Amino acid sequence: MAWYDYPALAGVAFLSALLGSVAGTGGSLVLLPALVLYFGIQDATAILLIANASANVSRVWVNRRELVMPVVGWFALGSLPLVVAGAWLFTITAPHLLTRVLGGFLLFMLLWRRLPLRPPTPPTVRWFFPVGLAIGFVSGLMATSGPLSAPFFLSYGLRRGAYIGTDALITVLMHIPKAAVFLHQGLISLRVLLASAVLIPFMIGGAVYGKRLLDRVPDRVFAYAIEAVLLVAGVDFLLRG
């Protein structure tokens, strides 16, 4: 990757963090295809893990007064062990197979966003324990799982800052064991750390600026941008590996 590619990648990083802060989910799905093109699936996922953590920490901070901690606790209790299992499976799977799986996953995310999903309203916050079990494994295996969890958070009544901040804190907690697995398996190299360091300021900037736009811009404007990326990248990765 040449030095002049980094400004373009930094711009995508800023946009992805901004999209995630306004639309509530999907920002990582915009950055991931660009990273895969430059770095390959395994390095791209490790870079996204580190860089996206900075954006999510920023979202937690700017929405800290609206966090719903019982949801965080029960979701994390279910998800963290399964994150480890999914991350370990990721590290031992062939890269070309992972890329095709990612392509299929992106297209599934596009379909998932378009389905009129209305999960039943949970009678108790403990309902997030089994939800966390399923989504934790997907999060460990794939680079992101935000769109999968969105309908459940919305069904529980989380909106705007409460949804974005709570989801961001859960994501940060899931990143910790995943990063430990990646480090143990040798996926966090100097190349990954340097690329992440370049992107982190732009991820933070996009997350903070997105908070300012949260109540000004219709969600659907950003949703269309996310879905266009999912369609193009999903087909490309699925066909080419």
Note down, in words, how this protein is organized.
- With 241 residues, the chain is mainly alpha-helical.
- It has one domain.
- The chain has 10 helices and no strands.
- The chain has helices at 5-23, 27-39, 41-62, 69-91, 95-114, 128-141, 146-156, 160-184, 190-213, 219-240.
- Helix 1 crosses helix 9 (190-213) and helix 3 (41-62) runs parallel beside helix 9.
- It is globular and about 50 Å long.
- The protein starts with a helix and ends with a helix.
- The mean pLDDT is 82.
Give a summary of the structure in a few sentences.
Helix content is 80%, strand content 0%.
List the helices and strands and how they pair.
Blueprint: H1 5-23, H2 27-39, H3 41-62, H4 69-91, H5 95-114, H6 128-141, H7 146-156, H8 160-184, H9 190-213, H10 219-240
Helix pairs in contact: 1-2, 1-9, 2-3, 2-10, 3-8, 3-9, 4-6, 4-8, 5-10, 6-7
What is the helix content? Answer: over 70%
The total count of strands amounts to: 0
Mean pLDDT rating:
82
Tally the helices: 10
Work out the radius of gyration. 16 Å
Number of domains: 1
Secondary structure category: mainly alpha
Percent of residues in beta strands? Answer: under 5%
From the spread of the alpha carbons, the general shape counts as globular
Please supply descriptive tags for the structure shown above.
about 240 residues; mainly alpha; 10 helices
